[in-house]
Amino acid sequence: MNNIKKPLQNTSRDYVQVSKLAAKFITLEGSEGAGKSTAMKVIKEKLESWQVPFISTREPGGEHNAEHIRELLLHSQHLAAKTELLLMFAARNEHLEKVIRPTLADGTWVVSDRFVDASYAYQGFGRGIDWSSIEYLEKFVVGTTKPDLTLLLDVDPAEGLNRAANRSNKDRIEREALSFFENIRKGYHQRVKSEPERIKVVNANDSIEAVAEAINSELQLFKNKIS
C-alpha cells in the first residue's frame, strides 16, 4: 500500500541541498487511461536520484480503513453522488490522519496517486455537485495539508478510455460514459486555472518517453524553486 524509500549515503551537492528541505507533498492526478502508474514510476525514480526518503500512496485508499472504503466506492452497485463524495472524504480523512500527516512530520516526502483535486473533478464536474460543498469538506478535512506540487496527466477522454479498455474487470467508475470523463477533464482544467503555480499539466497524449521527459522537467523546476 505504502512503499517507503530511505536515502542512501551520498555526499553529492544535489543530495545535501534536497535532504535539508522540509518534507514535500506531491500528488499525481489524471483520468482513466492517463498513464498514472507509469508516471508514478518516473516520479519515484527521480526522488530516489535525489536521495530523499519518501512513500508512495493512493486515493481512495492508502490506509487500512480507507482501503475498505475504496472497495465500497469502486465496487458498489450504485452510490448516490453525495454518498460518493462523503465516502471519498471519509477515506481521505483516515489517509491524512494516519499516513500523510505523520509521514510528513517525520521528514519523509509523500507522493500520492490522486488527492483532493480528484474530488473537484470527479464528484464536482463529473457528478455535478456544487464546488462550494467540496470546498467546505476540503477545509474541514484537509485543512492546511495541501500538496506542494501536483502533476496533472491530461489525456483526451476518448484516448484514455481506449487505453483503459484493455483492462479486465472494470470498476464502477471506469464503466461510466464518455461524457462523464469529458466533464472530469473540464474539472481538472478549472483546477489548473485556480492554482496554476501548484498544478502543472503534462500532455499524456504523448509517447511514454515524452511524458517521462515532461515529468522529469517539472520535477527539476520544482526542486530548483524550493532549493
In short:
The chain is α/β, with parallel strands linked by helices and 227 residues long. It contains nine helices and six strands, in the order βαβαβααβααβααβα. It has helices spanning 13-19, 36-50, 64-75, 81-105, 116-126, 131-142, 157-164, 178-194, 208-226; strands at 3-5, 25-30, 54-58, 109-113, 149-154, 199-203.
Tell me what the structure shows.
With 227 residues, this protein is of the alpha/beta class. The chain has one domain (3-226): Rossmann fold (3-Layer(aba) Sandwich), CATH 3.40.50.300. 56% of the residues lie in helices and 13% in strands. It has helices at 13-19, 36-50, 64-75, 81-105, 116-126, 131-142, 157-164, 178-194, 208-226, and strands at residues 3-5, 25-30, 54-58, 109-113, 149-154, 199-203. It has a 6-stranded mixed beta sheet with strand order 1-3-4-2-5-6, sandwiched between helices.
